Every structure is written in structure tokens, then in C-alpha cells.
């Protein structure tokens, strides 16, 4: 359904992505793990044209594009298929939860206001915010704001949702409610590509895990492959470190 080939990206002299490949089938939940600075965010941003890759190809269903030289029309077509959930929610502060969710439908998709509100309310209900349609972001907790961010993505009915560390800006006690919502939508068959440090999510919800380091995919496999029998030394070291951190965090 989504095939990405040979993505390269440099910022100045720093080569951040050194030829990243990824194939995602319909219904897959693919989790990318890896140390900070390894290029995970840059990779997601290149897929959605928030960043222009130096090189790379992608096919989204029947649309094939060059990630460096895609036309505005192609970018627009692909953005109809791909939604993004940001680390810092990226909500409009002067709009209510419902307005945040309907904005993209009304402006980007030309859906009527009434229809958009109907879709938006259903999406907010799905993330457990049926009481918060008219609340502004400042009146919501971080976990609730991120659930609005997820509802906004779901409302667009995309082929795939990209999540960039959706829980890493949250206080620890709010992480669970967001992960539960993500788990629910994964169980409904939503195709998802998720960058996260939440190893339990990777282990329990993903059907495939990629370990990225230094701008390349070092290793990929099922959660069992990666967590129980990693082959590469870099993967082993990373897991040892991050699982130890998780452990100290829970005791
Ligand atoms: N817009 C930018 N300009 C310059 N350097 C950037 C930019 N965005 C990211 N980088 C650099 O690229 C590297 C990878 O960043 P990023 O993709 O955010 O990694 P990750 O998400 O894995 O932590 C980092 O060294 C970061 O400083
Ligand atoms: Mg990042």
C-alpha cells in the first residue's frame, strides 16, 4: 500500500537520512524505534512532504512520486491519504476541540460545515472526548489535547496515520490514555506508522518494528524478533539501555 525507497536527506553538511526503505501493507502497525537524533522525525516529515527529501521514491497505492521533485498536485493527492499526529499536538489555540477537528475537513476537503461537525463529533467520541467538543486546548490536559490531535487525523479517514512520538510531551500519568486510544484505532484496522519510545506499545500492538540509528534502518522484524532475539549489536545496546530506563521508571 505504501512503499518508500531510498530516502536521503541532509541538513547542510549533516547527512541525516542515508537511504531509508519502508514497505507498509494495509492494516499494518509499524513502529520505528531508535535513539534521539537518528532521523526518525525527518523520515516521517519527508514522507508527508513537511520536509523535502534530497532523493527518494514513494508509491501510495496507485500514486507514484519522486520525494524530491513531487508536484504540488501530487503532494495534494498524497496529503488526502496521509494524516499526521505531532509530538506537540499542533492544535489551534483559538479554536475549540471540534473546530480543530473540522478545520481540515472544511478547508482542505471542502466538506460542508454540518457534515464536518457530524464527522468531527464521531471522531471525538471515538477518542473519549464526547464531553469536550467546545473546550479550548488551554482547558484540556496534554493527554486530552493529543486525543484531539488523533481525532483530527481519524476524521480525515486517511489510508495511513503517521505518529511522531505522540506521548513524549506528556506527563507520565497521561501516557496511558493516549496509548489506549492508539491501540483502539489499531485494532479497528487503521494502518499506522508510529515513532515511539513506548516499548510496551511496540511489543504489544505493532506487527512490525524497525530500529533506526544514524539515518539507516539497522534492523527490522516482528516485535518478537526485535525484542527477544535482536541480531545486530546496535539494536541490542539500544534495547538494553532503553529497557533499563523503563525499568527504573516503574520501580
Ligand atoms: N530543520 C533542521 N535543520 C537542521 N538540522 C535538523 C533539522 N531537523 C532535524 N535536524 C537534525 O537532524 C538530526 C535528526 O533529527 P530528527 O529527525 O529530529 O531525529 P529523531 O526524530 O530521531 O530524534 C538531528 O541531528 C537534528 O538536529
Ligand atoms: Mg523525533
- Which structural class matches the secondary elements? alpha/beta
Along the chain, the helix and strand elements come as: EEEHEEHEHHHEHEHEEHH
Please give the radius of gyration in angstroms. 18 Å
Unreliable spans are: none
Overall pLDDT confidence: 95
Give the spatial strand order of the biggest sheet.
6-7-8-3-9-10
Global geometry: globular
User: Which ligands does the model contain, each kind named once?
Assistant: adenosine-5'-diphosphate, magnesium ion
What proportion of the residues form beta strands (DSSP E)?
15-25%
Biggest β-sheet description:
6 strands, mixed
Question: How many strands appear in the DSSP assignment?
Answer: 10
Tally of alpha and pi helices: 9
Distance between the termini: 42 Å
Helix content: 40-55%
Structure description:
This protein is 41% helix and 24% strand. It has 9 helices and 10 strands. It is an alpha/beta fold and 251 residues long. The strands form 2 sheets. It has a 6-stranded mixed beta sheet with strand order 6-7-8-3-9-10, sandwiched between helices. The protein has helices at 40-47, 72-79, 97-108, 113-126, 142-155, 172-187, 199-204, 223-228, 233-250, and strands spanning 2-11, 14-24, 29-33, 55-60, 63-66, 82-85, 160-164, 192-195, 208-213, 216-221. The model has no long low-confidence stretch (mean pLDDT 95). Helix 3 (97-108) crosses helix 4 (113-126). Strand 7, helix 6 (172-187) and strand 8 (192-195) form a beta-alpha-beta unit. It binds adenosine-5'-diphosphate and magnesium ion.
Amino acid at each position: 500500500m505504501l512503499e518508500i525507497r531510498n530516502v536521503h536527506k541532509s541538513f547542510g553538511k549533516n547527512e541525516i537520512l542515508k537511504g531509508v526503505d519502508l514497505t507498509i501493507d494495509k492494516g499494518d502497525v509499524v513502529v520505528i524505534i531508535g535513539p534521539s537524533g537518528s532521523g526518525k522525525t525527518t523520515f516521517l516529515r519527508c514522507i508527508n512532504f513537511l520536509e523535502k527529501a534530497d532523493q527518494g521514491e514513494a508509491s501510495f497505492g496507485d500514486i507514484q512520486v519522486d520525494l524530491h521533485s513531487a508536484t504540488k498536485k501530487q503532494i495534494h493527492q498524497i496529503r488526502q491519504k496521509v494524516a499526521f499526529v505531532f509530538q506537540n499536538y499542533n492544535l489551534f489555540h483559538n479554536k475549540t476541540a471540534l473546530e480543530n477537528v473540522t478545520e481540515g475537513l472544511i478547508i482542505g476537503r471542502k466538506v460542508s460545515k454540518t457534515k464536518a461537525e457530524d464527522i468531527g463529533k464521531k471522531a471525538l467520541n471515538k477518542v473519549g472526548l464526547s464531553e469536550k467538543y467546545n473546550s479550548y486546548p488551554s482547558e484540556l490536559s496534554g493527554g486530552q489535547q493529543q486525543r484531539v490531535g488523533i481525532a483530527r487525523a481519524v476524521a480525515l479517514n486517511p489510508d495511513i496515520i503517521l505518529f511522531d512520538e505522540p506521548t513524549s510531551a506528556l506527563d507520565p500519568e497521561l501516557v496511558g490514555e493516549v496509548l489506549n486510544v492508539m491501540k483502539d484505532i489499531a485494532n479497528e484496522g487503521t494502518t499506522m506508522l508510529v515513532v515511539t519510545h513506548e516499548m510496551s506499545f511496540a511489543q504489544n500492538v505493532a506487527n512490525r518494528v524497525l530500529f533506526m540509528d544514524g539515518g539507516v534502518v539497522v534492523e527490522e522484524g516482528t516485535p518478537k524478533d526485535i525484542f527477544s532475539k535482536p541480531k545486530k549489536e546496535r539494536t541490542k545496546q539500544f534495547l538494553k539501555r532503553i529497557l533499563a530506563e523503563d525499568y527504573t521508571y516503574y520501580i
